[in-house]
Every structure is written in C-alpha cells, then in structure tokens.
From TrEMBL, chains A, B, C, D:
<dbReference type="GO" id="GO:0009847">
    <property type="term" value="P:spore germination"/>
</dbReference>
<comment type="function">
    <text>Initiates the rapid degradation of small, acid-soluble proteins during spore germination.</text>
</comment>
<keyword id="KW-0378">Hydrolase</keyword>
<comment type="similarity">
    <text>Belongs to the peptidase A25 family.</text>
</comment>
<dbReference type="GO" id="GO:0004222">
    <property type="term" value="F:metalloendopeptidase activity"/>
</dbReference>
<comment type="subunit">
    <text>Homotetramer.</text>
</comment>
<dbReference type="InterPro" id="IPR023430">
    <property type="entry name" value="Pept_HybD-like_dom_sf"/>
</dbReference>
<dbReference type="GO" id="GO:0006508">
    <property type="term" value="P:proteolysis"/>
</dbReference>
<protein>
    <recommendedName>
        <fullName>Germination protease</fullName>
        <ecNumber>3.4.24.78</ecNumber>
    </recommendedName>
</protein>
<keyword id="KW-0645">Protease</keyword>
<keyword id="KW-0865">Zymogen</keyword>
<dbReference type="Pfam" id="PF03418">
    <property type="entry name" value="Peptidase_A25"/>
</dbReference>
<feature type="propeptide">
    <location>
        <begin position="1"/>
        <end position="8"/>
    </location>
</feature>
<dbReference type="InterPro" id="IPR005080">
    <property type="entry name" value="Peptidase_A25"/>
</dbReference>
C-alpha cells in the first residue's frame, strides 16, 4: 500500500488506495474528454484518502490538450457543464478567488486566470440599465500569498466575503499531481473548497463552506509534480517490474536493503523537498490552463453567452 | 481666483488659493530637500481647499531627483523622518496598502512600492525567535481597482482591517499634480488618509481613521498632470503676461471673447478628460518613485535599520 | 503657416500645410473606416512636409475604435487590404521588425505587436512537409533601443537583414500625433520605411529600401502627443477664435505681446520637451493597437487564413 | 561508466568520467567559494567529455548562495576575478549576449542578466567627454530564441558582431545541471563560447571564436535538471548502495532484470524528455542569479568601480 503520496488530485489519491469503503468513483467519456468523478462519502474515507468529504470531478484530455485553441474551447465547455452542476441556484454574486503567487510562475495559475474572468459586479451595481441582462454579478479577487503579504490568505478572503456576501465562492489554485503525465492535461473541480496544506502555496487554513458561510468550489490544474514523488514512483515501478520478472531473487533483493533506506536515497537524489518537476514551457502552460479555467467560468457563471461574445467582452 | 484646479497636492491647492483662514503653511529646507507643510485646521478651510482637515507634508527635490540613486536614498531618509512624526507610538502591526492598478503604468505606484516593502508580520507571528528584534510586524496589501475586481477598494480594505486590526494603515497612491514640474520630483505625506475622488484611481469611498478605526497615513507621488489642467494653466499664464505687458489693450482683449469660451477651446485642444500628461519614461519614473517610498517606509517602520540592511533583507 | 508641427502622421503634416505642389491626397470611406492617402511625389514636397517621398495610408476609425473586439477585427481586415497593395509580389521571407522599448509602455507598441505575429520561417525551413502550404516564411525581430542595448537600431537591423536576406521588411513603431483625438483611433502604413528622428524612440539612421536593400514598409499607431504640440495648438485655436470674434481688438492684442513670447510661455506650462500626453489607459491601448497590427499583418502576409485560424495558430 | 549524462557543467561531466587523459582539473577554495577548473586539452578528451577544448571554471558556493545579498556580492567579486583572467587585454568594445527566452522563466537568465548589465557603448560614442573614464564600451544584446523569432540565434548574433566588431563577446545562458544540488549554487565561466546543443534553448550552431572572429566567453548558472537525469542518477545511487550493502544477492538482482529495462522504466516515470526539475521559487532564483552575473560582469568589464558605484549607475 502506497503512503504519503503527495497529490492534490482526488483521482490519483483514490487510484493509489484502490477500492475503499465510503468512496465512489464514476467515469464517462465525453467527446475525447474523460470525466472522472470521485465521491468521498464518509469521514473515515476522507481521512484515509487525505481529501475532504465531497465531490471531485476530473476532466482528463489527451496529451498537450491545452496547447491547441480548439481543444481548449472544447475543454472549457465541458468544464462549464460540470461547474453548472455544482453552482447553487440563484447564487446572487459570485466571488472568484485566484490563489497563489502571481510572481512565481508555477504558482501563478489563480491570478493569471483572474485576468481573464469577466468582472461585472460593479457594472451591474453602478449602471444596471447599461448591462446585458444575461450577465450575473461576478467579482474577482487575488489575495496574494503569506510570504508576500504577511497575511493569512484565508483571513483576508474571509474579511472580503463578510463584506460583500457572495452566494458562491470559486477558488482557483495551482495543484501538484503525482504523475507527470497529468501536468497540463487535467482539470479538477470540487465542491469541497480548499483544505489546509493543499495547493502549491500550501494554505494554512481552510477556505470552505464552514469557514466562508457559503458554498465554495475549488478549481485547479496541476502545474508541477514534486520531485520526491517522481522518485518514489520510479522506485515503486521498479519493484513491480522485479516482482514480475525477478522470481525468487526478489526476496534476496529486498532482504539486502531496507525499503526506507532506498526511499531516502531516492529523495536525496531528487533534491530538497521544494524541488518540483515541471515542463520546460511552464510559462506557456500556465497561461493556457488559465485561459481554459477562465473561459469555463465565464460560460458557467453567465447565461447563454457564446465563446465569441466572451472574447468580445466588455460589450 | 482659480477654481476647479485638479491636483492631489495640498501645496498646489493652497498656492492657488493664496492666504486662507484656517490654513497654516510652514517651509524649511533640509539638505537640498524642501519640506513644505500645509495644515488645514477648520472645516471651512477644508471645503474651500478641497482637502480634508489634517497635515500635509510635501518633500520637494530639484529636477529628476528620483533618477539618481544617492538622491533617492537622501529623499527616502528625509521621508522616513516625516513618517515617524506621524506614526502612533507602539502601533503594533502596520498595514501598508498599495492602491491603484498594477497593470496601468501611471497608476501602478502603490502595487510597485509594495513589492519593495519589507513584509514581516508572518515571520514575527510564526517564528518570533528567528526574527531580528528591530523588526516590527508589517503586512502589505494590494486591493486592486474597481474596474478589475468589481469590488470597491474601500470595502475590501475595511474587510481586511477588521480581521487583522492594525495599529496604523499607510496608503500609497499615484497622484495627479497641477504642475508638470512636480511629476517625479515631489512626495506628499499626510495624516488624513485617502478621500473620495482623489488619486488616479478616483476612489469612491474614504480610507481614513473614521472608516478604518485607526490612524491612516497617505503617501504618494504625482505621476501625471491632467491635460485639461495644463491647458488651463497655460491660459492663465498668458493672461498674466498680457496684464503685465499689455497695458490698455488687455481690456479690449478680454471684452472680445469670454473666458469660458477660451477655456472650452483649450480643453478641447487637450483632448478628452482622461488624457494625462506624463513623462515619456513613465515606467522608469514609477519604479524609482516606488523605491523611494518603500525605502522611506522600511526605515520608518522598523527600528535602526541601515539602508544596507534593508537591501539585504530577508536576513 | 504652422511650423515645427511635431507629428509622425503624414496626414496631419499635410493638413497643417494645406495644398502643396507635389503632394496628392485621396480619401475614401470603407464601412466606417476612413482610408486617407497622402502621396509625396517630389523632393521639394518631401522637404516642406518633413516626410520622405512615398505613399502614406491612414486608417481612421471613430472614437475608441480599438476598445471593441469586433471593430479591431474590422480595422485589421482593412489594414490587411492596404498592406497587400504595398507588398512586393513573391516576397520570399518577410522580416517584421518591432521597434521601440519593450519596457516603456507608450514606446512598446512594436515589441508587443511582435508577440502576436505568426512566426513561421523556422517551421518552413526545418519541417516544410508539416507546415500548412498557405503559410509564408515570416521572422520577427525586436532590436531594442539605443539606451538599453548601446547599439544603433539601424546598425543591428542591417546586420540581420544581410544574414537572412528577406524580400520585404516591415517596421512597427509607436508614433506621435499632433492631435490627441488620433491617439488610439488611427493606423498609418507607408512604403517609405522609417526616417531618422521619427517614432518615439527617435531613430538616428534610416531603415528604408536604400539602407536595407529591399522594400521597407512602416506601420504604426500614435500613442502620444507631445505636450508642447498640445500647447501650441491650443494657442493657435485661440488666435483663430479671436480673429473671428474679436474684430478690431485683435490688432491691439497681437501688438501687445509677441507670438514667440506666448509660445515660450505655453511650452513652459506644458513642461520639458519629453512630457507627452497620453490616455490614462495607455497600457490597454498599446495592447489593443498591437493586436490590430499583428492581426492585419497575419492576414496580409499569409494566404487565405481566417481570423479564427490565426487565433488557433500554431496549427 | 556513466554515459549520456545530460549536463552543461564541465565539472559534472568530468566527475562522471573519472580521470581522463587530456583533462586537467584544479580546485581551490576562496573564502567559502570553491573555484574548480576543468581544462580540456585534446580533441579526444573533448569528444569523450562532450565539451569543447578550453577552460571551464566553476564557482561553487554552499546552499542557497544566491538568496543572500552579501553572499551574492561575494560571489560576484570572485566571478569578476575569474572573468578578468579570461578577458583579452584592451578588448575595445565588449558585447554581452543574453541567450534564452525572456518569457520562459527557467530559460530567461540571459535576458534578465542583460537588464542589469551597464550599457555604455552609446554614451562613450556620442558624449565621450561626459563619461567617467573608468568605463569601457559595453553593448548588450538579447537575440531571442528560434521558436519566437524564426531566426537562428547564431545567425543573428553573427550579423550584429560583423557590424559592431567587438573585441570580446560574452554569452550568458541558462544551464542544465546533473545534480539538483547545483541548481542555484553554481556559476560556470568558460573561454569556449557556446556549442550546439547546449543550454536550455539547445542552440543549433556554435557561438565561438571561430564563428564570431573574436574571443567568446560563456557564462551560466544551472536553473534546471532534466527529470530523466534525476531518475537515472537515483537508480545509480541505488545500485551503488546495493553493491555495498547487498553482498551476494546483488548478482541475483542484476541477472533478474536488464539495466536498460530499468532505465526505460525510470525515464517513463519521470515523464517526457522536456520535463525539468526546478526549485519552486524558480522566478526568484533566476532573478538572483542574473544579478550575480551582471554584477560580476560590471566589475570585470570596467576599471575600479565599486559595487556602490555600479548600483548608482548611470552616474
């Protein structure tokens, strides 16, 4: 059994654990996008999985799904469908929160996505007659990160939420995956909000319904894999290969050195805990992923807007 | 008498009005920096001047004072002295607020300065034993602007202030001057906070002691002059010149056309109300001004730090 | 007669001069875009106008034409038509040169536009079979400015042109207009290349057919008006108004003070020579203008691409 | 014997090979900085090592040497000493070339460093009398990368060199290391120029004395490790550990599976060839490394400037 798998994707955490009481998974394919849902139903399952109770939806596309504009649009539309299922009816104002550090590329997904989210709350408030009636009030907020502001992100967001009383909060954050193959090909959406310790910025306090007093969705894309995870997985695959091919000698091998010793070696090879594996074109990938998230949100939060209308906003 | 002078500098507003009951001004020179103070003492004077009651200190240096590193340091030290006079004793936590739009160059002064403000609140809170005891808790916060976030800046700042309860708030904002000669040569510090309609972002609500529940300093540098102001001033200077040189013909001239007609012409020549006059090297100027403000704050908010220590932070 | 009018737009220079031997102008309207052509036919006319011999085409749209995506597309298509008329047949490789300083907002138009120009030369050279046959080889080059590189821009561009031997060079540069109303509403295209002293960066040497050995087009948008020009124009309008309304008093007025004295006063009010008048949202305007220029170029340089295909590039 | 080690550091390549005919190494410590020199003397050694003939100097500091301003200054001074040893006497003009993609963080080291290099060539040429005589003519040039410009970097640099005829060219480039521990702690300087296939941008043609007609120094800092290298090294360390601890069972183990099978597994775990391992704070690291390189160059290229004078430039 794998332990200490460092991933923000419920799908990966669930796959590592195998079948688990209190966890349901569903999968369907939708025109080239695999929609995979993990439902965590019990506190016990949440503890075992290291994921809060709730629903996690993963949209998986094939390789480099973000690099092609048509596929980005297709993914954004599929995402919008899933977001709509989780949005409360008549949510009034939506507050989109872009978590992460705008000046640290792999962590900048949230602030970057915000730049493309259609912000309408002030227009609807100050010139309601001039605003297309299909638009709903959306505000966008980038709280920054603790190391830059000296302020707990959750603290700041709670302060703003208390003031403007949104009907739903949607947090966007950069994620860590377990598998390098998912970086840049996967979106995760959940109705659980953000838990302490998750995301690249490693939040200290929760941003969830309990903390904010309204439904909180979380939206993210993995932009890195921790180097230690890569090393650990490589080791596991090797053990599996040895088991299959190696027959009797495997026993001798495992007696020879302890598993923990080997893991320590691997981690050392991969460098300190803060080393991450990331595509060389990480700047481009973050920009593309941000545009998918923003487009998905723009489609889901407003009524019957086309992609062309969204591109042409403000209108 | 001049009316409708559009300037965020109390010194300019006061100069345009001439001597005024309820307004005191002081001036002294300090090693090449002119320190000029305007004290607005009565509600009537505040109304006439269009500036809230309180103290406004202007530091004026000679031409292009920001382009030279030595002079920037000199100005920052003079600024630190003035800030210290306005800081409450034992202020606990200081919250520095960077107003303005980080993505609009002439308006980006606040967010730019924040990047260089030493942020220490989280260090002091989470690892107090590791922190130099001369450091005081400082947090830094860039609320964004209404057009980008959909949120009233004052609303957001109030939410954060309520959460973290600072002993003093210091707002940094880009200003409009009346005279092009002051752009890039002047700093203004006041104990009045920020009033509605001031600054380039044109705040809708106040950020002052009444709104935030603690002393609020305002700190700014003019980065633009409104084109309409330039035109109006050019006209005024011309009238003055005519008066001096023109003798009797002046009467004939002023009868010929009305003053308002001329002003309308001038405004039209200068373009719509949102045209601003700004140096061509505005990006550089904003960066330099931001570094002066941040250095002045870093010197004033902490105890006995040298410029070298501040440059070497984190230490 | 106006002198010393500081404008990079041939249309404005020509309008200031009135009818001039050796200069032909044509105007037509094309679905809301005014296409205005100035043809400078003789060396004498070129000297008087301060513009090199050749053809200058201005596309003028109505107010804030760049702020709306549909109108940007419309303008880009009209621009593409005009560019095609000036492109040599079978030009082989096109080199697009983005002049100006990427780190000075009003001067960053060229480098910004380059970011959106479809670059294909390397694809066609290294994997010709994989490239859509409608694409022609385009390279993009941002030489930087003298103050940042220590290198004469023309010198650097000549070095590159000699190496890669393009069939046409297209220079993009930020321009100064005379009238604030043209900032952000006008595009200028010419077959004359870039002359010394023009553009915001104030080139020292020419980038034209003689210097580079192939046809050189110039493409630009005014992003500023010099403050001194505004002041001068305001004065001129006032004089005109006086002439009309003032009758006999005008003589007395003009005797009273000399024109040059007044101009000096006006210039002083407008600040030093490097002050420019620019819209407050200059960052946004430069981004929008850059996207129009890039889209126009992408449509003109390749064969039968749709706007959607260009957006989806690389394909 | 290790093969296919992917590193731009001659020190690592040499260490992987062990003692080799035609390769000399020297090491000394200089106040906390280890100066390690690899001299490749024969074509055969160059082929075996995969490094061109010439001298490679590595400056290794301890952990996170770049994060502390004092240590950055110390490293820069040590670097300046080494650069001076390799500079030709009376080099006339120096051309500093910043290789890499300014918009891809791990590859942006060269362009970022250029921003801080003191550029003086134009000052000395156009106003020699106003320039401090300790300054020598330095130009700075960022050619961009093939994917963005459509132009071979070497082609463009050769064009510029031919025009301005510098006495020495210094190329700055982001490097790949073999060991994650060297990322952000090591500088490499060589007199060999840049070879095809090296650096993150993977140059296609050489930038060396033969290609450019003058001495060419190369200066770089590793900003990434290829994920495949990490995986391979982890495997090697494990084998070594088994050898030591495992005794007789090692034979059985290695018979069980082939080495190549295992390597293939490891590479697969680490993701595609373009995955890189990089610190999470890569943006910060690149900025800090760039400032060390620029300061080292500024100290070496001019005469007797202090760090303070360099910071205060232009003076």
């Amino acid at each position: 059994m794998q332990k200490n798998i460092r991933t923000d994707l419920a799908r990966e955490a669930s796959a590592a654990m195998g079948a688990l009481q209190g966890v349901e998974t569903f999968s369907r394919e939708d025109e080239g996008v695999e929609v995979y849902q993990v439902q965590v139903n019990t506190p016990a399952a949440a503890r075992t999985l290291g994921k809060a109770m709730g629903r996690y939806v993963t949209l998986d596309a094939t390789d480099e799904a973000f690099s092609d504009m048509d596929r980005r649009e297709h993914l954004a539309k599929a995402l919008a469908q899933e977001i709509k299922k989780l949005l409360p009816e008549d949510f009034g104002t939506a507050l989109v929160v872009g978590l992460g550090n705008a000046r640290a590329t792999p962590d900048a997904l949230g602030p970057k996505a915000l730049e493309m989210v259609m912000v309408t709350r002030h227009l609807i408030e100050y010139m309601p007659e001039a605003v297309d009636e299909r638009l709903r009030p959306v505000a966008a907020y980038a709280p920054g990160v603790l190391g830059v502001t000296g302020l707990e992100t959750a603290e700041v967001v709670r302060g703003v939420v208390k003031r403007i009383k949104p009907g739903v909060v949607i947090c966007i954050d950069a994620l860590a995956a377990r598998s390098a193959a998912r970086v840049g090909n996967t979106l995760q959406l959940s109705d659980t909000g953000i838990q302490p310790g998750s995301g690249l910025g490693n939040m200290r306090s929760a941003l969830n319904a309990k903390a904010l007093g309204c439904p909180v969705l979380a939206l993210g894309v993995p932009t890195v894999v921790y180097a230690s995870t890569i090393a650990q997985d490589a080791f596991q695959q090797m053990l599996d290969a040895l088991k299959e091919e190696g027959g009797g000698e495997f026993g001798a091998f495992t007696r020879a050195v302890s598993r923990d010793d080997l893991l320590a070696l691997l981690r050392q090879a991969a460098g300190a805990g803060d080393m991450v594996v990331t595509p060389k074109n990480i700047d481009e990938l973050v920009a593309q992923a941000a545009s998918v998230l923003a487009l998905g949100l723009n489609l889901a939060l407003h009524k019957n807007l086309s992609v062309e209308e969204i591109r042409a906003f403000p209108f």
